[in-house]
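Encode chain A's predicted structure.
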Amino acid sequence: VSHGAELLADGNIHVYGALRGRALAGLRGDRTARIFCRSLEAELISIAGYYRLADDLEPAQRGQPAQIHLDGENLHVQAL
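Encoded structure for chain A:
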């Protein structure tokens, strides 16, 4: 997914490559939605309206395979 591109989904998002654009999962409020990618380089990630910008990601998470899910009101980025 290129820089500037947006992925929008009511449910989960799976990217079998680099995620460089924006990924918004759970657009209709599905708090169980998840985002999966092989290389996390996203400008923005969002689940059910809760979001994190690229600047908010830990440096060790960037460029790594990841699963993102909502934990309460916080997005949790988990290494794969």
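The longest strand covers residues 13-19.
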